[in-house]
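During the practical work, I worked with a single protein chain and the tokens that describe its fold, as given directly below.
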Amino acid sequence: MIKRFFIQFFLGKRLYAALVAICLTFLVSYWFTALFTLGVILLYTLGFFFLLDTVFLFRQGNGLVANRLLPERFSNSDANQVLISLENKYRFAVKVTLIDEVPAQFQMRDFEIFDQLEAKEKKEVFYTLTPLERGEYIFGDLHVFVLSRIGLVKRRFSFQKGQMVKVYPSFIQMQQFDFLATNIRRFDYGFKKIRRIGHTMEFEQIKNYIPGDDIRSINWKATAKSADLMVNQFQDEKSQPIYSIIDMGRVMQMPFNGLSLLDYAINSCLAFSNVAIKKGDKAGVITFSHRMQKSMQASSRKSHLLGILEMLYGLDTDFLDTDFGLLYNWLKRKVSQRSMLLIFTNFEHQTALQRQLPYLKAIARQHLLVVVMFENTLLESLTEQVPDKISEVYKQTVAEKFMYDKRLMAKELNRHGIQTILTKPSELSINTINKYLELKARGLI
């Protein structure tokens, strides 16, 4: 009991301030002796209120109850809310200071939340955490320091040691892009306009012509019979196998805004697979580096998305060199049906692309290949600065050369019939989904 008392017992700032004031009173009383009596009175008064405050806070065993409410899982690279419920069981108002031992991955050493509770009041407070890595995150103790209105003594309550939450690929981002799969006639998706080119040849129905329909689809026989313009309506072909292939080599280790290119690719893969499945296509995932790692067969079942989520959550890599020849041989043996292959990778210079180009061309002869590469936003910001020194001019020149090489690599891939996405990491998901919708509208898949 005594040990528990001393573990929970802390001194308030107001007590230290009062002691400093009394010490100054005694110091000044060396020259003004009348202040000595005042100092003694203040000291006894402080001691009385100190004991009174201690009794108020410690006479009730469970004066305050707190509970940390965590979601079932966190979404990587998104703001996740942590809710804390508080209940004041004292018969007087208290001030509280919350100190939550957040997981070590966040490196937050100054976490504090200040609030106030009236007598018998219940309240909920929340804060947000934005993880930048997948994996298990362990929360420590939730400490609540309580002060009465006297404010000389603090009592510490501790709750819920060792809570764990798993950080999954960004399912919040996946839900944000859900609407892209709902309406096949949308021209403006809110993020970036899509130019829908042509249509597929899978017939759906004959309907009345309305402004905006393709005049090439007019059915003249049906028009003659009904005396109204009638058009053939086509729908996108479905059940096409689509694979997201994630390069887990060292080129994907580069970080932007605290998140590696690999995690950007994983988040985009989840959002893209969700849209593909809702559009009726089969979505699958393949990962590789110096060896073939995990893979999941393409499927259009709704429950398949949960399997993709679990697979992406467990991805781990040593960021070694990538073997595209190994990927080509694996695809030749395992993926016999013509499919759309979306490869998330990165080439920083021409020689790196030239080494892998023969394998990419061989894959493109059998499948619809889309290569996703990343723009270096740090180089872009460097070129936008106004140089003050000759050395800064040199740096800008080198940065512009690297950016120009990236555009040349994209054109080189296009020249060999390989579709290319050159995008900023932050815009990866929307650009990937837009490319998929464009290719689907053109009837290429």
About this structure: The first strand starts at residue 9 and ends at 11. The two ends are 73 Å apart (CA to CA). Confidence is low (pLDDT under 50) at residues 184-198. Residues 171-181+186-194+237-441 form a domain with the Rossmann fold fold (CATH 3.40.50.410).
